[in-house]
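Slide 14.
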Amino acid sequence: MVWLSKREIAYYLILKKRFNGNVFNIGEALDVLIFFGSKNIAKKIIKRLKSKGFLESVGIASYRIRDGEEVLVKLLSNYISERLYRNLKLRGYGVSLNKLEGYNVIEVNKCDSNVFTMLDVVRELGIEMRCIDWKG
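Slide 15: predicted structure.
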């Protein structure tokens, strides 16, 4: 996954503050972004923001800003689930990671209270975590 550049984040924040969830077209966006760089760069950044999920296409050349936290959770859920899987495995837990359409499932054998506390946290991030056997 390629991270966002500072310019992409800046353009996203500028568009978010200016349009605040309202539908806007490419011309309106360029009218705002022209003060921060060239028109060609602004078009490329808009295209990148759309491909990464920060802009939602509403029509031909019309967009709506999406909530940044939702997009980041979607972008990072695979990363977080893989890190959690590797670290649990490293700590000696019997663990498996299954990637299904739209979400990841982590199954942990012999959960303890430390792992059990992570269940709610990772569920909020779009990762299903299951304890196969409880060792209390």
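Speaker note: The radius of gyration is 20 Å.
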